[in-house]
């Protein structure tokens, strides 16, 4: 009886709290993915510190008496950026992802050379908590390259992995045909109808134990959609049905946590759908770790199948309303390019990955000679959202999910064209997984491609924000009057950074509300909290107490379009829509 809890979506200070709550619910196992892109952000450069300290997380789980299921497959999905694959793979257009391609496999093996020796001592065969590991994740939903699956299995075993190996797929014929291999336990993923799902699994694996590796007890949210919920009673009844089938289960998710920074993924079925920062998932624990009705309903079901001690939970983590925070300084993006980026020069626009950039924004600039009559300005394949400026004036926004062009005429003296593109998260599931960011084909005025571009990569890592030259903001003026940019059609559309401070006497969890703001990114004390957008459903950004300091704290907001007033609120409750 397992619950999913991703160490990389929870600040390390709270790992113990979340694991103790998992155990108190009656679960005996914790499951976690391992995202390749978090641990090898640049090829050959590895990170296993802070929120990436997987060894400490697994060790702690073992110390608390929990078994661990680990999913270190190269691809994880998980609504995580690029399904956990590192974006630098896309610098080589010839690499065939998730296949027996020798170049791709060589990258996987180089990663495993570093990762798997860390996991090997933690296996149950060596006295550790790890009882099983996954070789690939829902591969039958993507491909049927059995040589690839065998190669990943071999790579793991050659590096000392000797616990139970498994795959996980949907309970469909084509998925189980494509995603399973002999000698590896097949498990299934579903949200309902366990009897039918297990019957299908039995057709392909008649004699092995039954396991639902992902019982979807909630769901994730995309921007511009409603917040997803599932009732506690429905969740509990399905778990009862699973246990009555004699099967094992893993709750996906027991605790979702947060896609901090730029790590949210995206889906693309009929259109591109970026995932919000909150990974609350309507799980048993809320985004900030509070047991929900679903928690107690699931525990009650477990008590019918296992003897549990009286419920004992860790002390609640307090939340605080720190009130309004004035952002008293600002710096316009276009006035700060020298501090934020070193430009590169290319004949054609190139995507981020070709320039060694992974996340954030990228600015493409060129000059169009004039005069030219009005024709459509076409961004041929833009990923994902572009703000377009002509001679410093905002002309409009072109979004990947609603393809459009902008009418553009050029005066006799010519026109400076600037296109600011936001990477809103790489696709994490399905056949469109290869998802380079920026302008991937070209820019046309009418049918004529435009050449000669200055490109500013803008990953917006906090270290670069420290170089900005902020100026005071008049206290009660609108964003347009604060120097954030010119007024276009009644709306300020010049991107700017805003900075303010707030005092904390006692640290507590809090939630950043940006009512009156439009779209952007927020940082507290140098930590990237993630994106906000008035398109919803998410209305607050979670700030765990460990990110705060007693005394003065710094808040920086990068706003793309403009705000009603340069102030925000730190509230004591989340608002996920």
UniProtKB/TrEMBL annotation:
Residues 495-553 form the Beta-galactosidase galactose-binding domain. Coiled coil: none annotated. It comes from the Bacteria. PROSITE patterns: GLYCOSYL_HYDROL_F35. Keywords: Glycosidase, Hydrolase. GO terms for molecular function: beta-galactosidase activity. One of its GO terms (biological process) is carbohydrate metabolic process. InterPro entries: B-gal_1-like, BetaGal1-like_ABD1, BetaGal_gal-bd, Galactose-bd-like_sf, GH, Gly_Hdrlase_35_cat, Glyco_hydro_35_CS, Glycoside_Hdrlase_35. Pfam families: BetaGal_ABD_1 (PF21317), BetaGal_gal-bd (PF21467), Glyco_hydro_35 (PF01301). The active site is at 138 (proton donor), 214 (nucleophile). The keyword Hydrolase applies. Residues 349-458 form the Beta-galactosidase 1-like first all-beta domain. Residues 1-304 form the Glycoside hydrolase 35 catalytic domain. Belongs to the glycosyl hydrolase 35 family. This is Beta-galactosidase. It comes from Paenibacillus yonginensis.
């Amino acid at each position: 009886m397992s619950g999913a809890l991703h160490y990389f979506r929870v600040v390390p200070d709270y790992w113990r709290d979340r694991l103790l709550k998992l155990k108190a619910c009656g679960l005996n196992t914790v499951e976690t993915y391992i995202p390749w892109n978090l641990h090898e952000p640049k090829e050959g450069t590895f990170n296993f510190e802070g929120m990436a300290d997987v060894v400490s997380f697994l060790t702690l789980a073992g110390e608390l008496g929990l078994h661990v299921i680990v999913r270190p497959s190269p691809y994880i999905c998980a609504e995580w950026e690029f399904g956990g694959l590192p974006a630098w793979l896309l610098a080589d257009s010839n690499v065939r992802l998730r296949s027996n391609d020798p170049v791709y496999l060589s990258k996987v093996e180089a990663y495993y050379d570093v990762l798997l020796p860390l996991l090997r001592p933690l296996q149950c065969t060596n006295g550790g908590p790890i009882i099983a590991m996954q070789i690939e994740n829902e591969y039958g939903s993507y491909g049927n390259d059995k040589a690839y699956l065998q190669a990943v299995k071999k790579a793991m075993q050659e590096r000392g992995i000797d616990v139970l190996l498994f795959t996980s797929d949907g309970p469909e014929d084509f998925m189980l045909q494509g995603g399973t291999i002999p000698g590896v336990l097949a498990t299934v993923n579903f949200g309902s109808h366990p009897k039918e799902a297990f019957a299908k699994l039995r057709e392909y694996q008649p004699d092995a134990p039954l396991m639902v590796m992902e019982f979807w007890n909630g769901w994730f949210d995309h921007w511009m959609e409603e917040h997803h919920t599932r009732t506690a009673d429905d969740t509990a009844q399905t778990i009862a049905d699973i246990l009555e089938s004699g099967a094992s289960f893993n709750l996906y998710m027991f605790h979702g946590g947060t896609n901090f920074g730029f790590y949210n993924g995206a889906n693309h079925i009929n259109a591109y759908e970026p995932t919000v920062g909150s990974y609350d998932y309507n799980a048993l624990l809320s985004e900030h770790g509070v047991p929900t009705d679903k928690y107690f309903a699931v525990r009650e079901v477990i008590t019918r199948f296992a003897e549990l001690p009286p419920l004992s939970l860790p002390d609640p983590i307090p939340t605080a309303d720190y009130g309004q925070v004035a952002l008293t300084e600002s710096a316009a993006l276009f006035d700060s390019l020298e501090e934020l980026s070193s430009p590169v020069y290319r004949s054609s626009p190139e995507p981020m990955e070709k320039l060694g950039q992974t996340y954030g924004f990228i600015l493409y600039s060129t000059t169009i000679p004039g005069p030219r009559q009005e024709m459509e300005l076409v961004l041929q394949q833009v990923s994902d959202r572009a703000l377009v400026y002509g001679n410093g004036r905002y002309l409009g926004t072109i979004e990947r999910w609603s393809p459009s062009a902008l009418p553009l005429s050029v005066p006799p003296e010519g026109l400076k064209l600037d296109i600011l593109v936001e990477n809103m998260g790489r696709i994490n599931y399905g056949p469109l997984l290869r998802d380079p960011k920026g302008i991937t084909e070209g820019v046309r005025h009418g049918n004529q491609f435009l050449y000669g571009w200055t490109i500013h990569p803008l990953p917006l890592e906090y270290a670069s924000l420290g170089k900005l030259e902020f100026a005071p903001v008049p206290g009660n003026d609108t964003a347009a009057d604060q120097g954030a940019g010119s007024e276009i059609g009644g709306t300020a559309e010049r991107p700017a950074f805003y900075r303010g401070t707030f005092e904390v006497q006692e640290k507590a969890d809090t939630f950043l509300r940006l009512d009156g703001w439009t779209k952007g990114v927020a940082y507290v004390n140098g930590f990237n909290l993630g994106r906000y957008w008035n398109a919803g459903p998410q209305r607050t950004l979670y700030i765990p107490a460990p990110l705060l300091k007693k005394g003065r704290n710094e808040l920086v907001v990068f706003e793309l379009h403009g705000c009603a007033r340069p102030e925000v609120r730190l509230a004591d409750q989340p608002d996920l829509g």
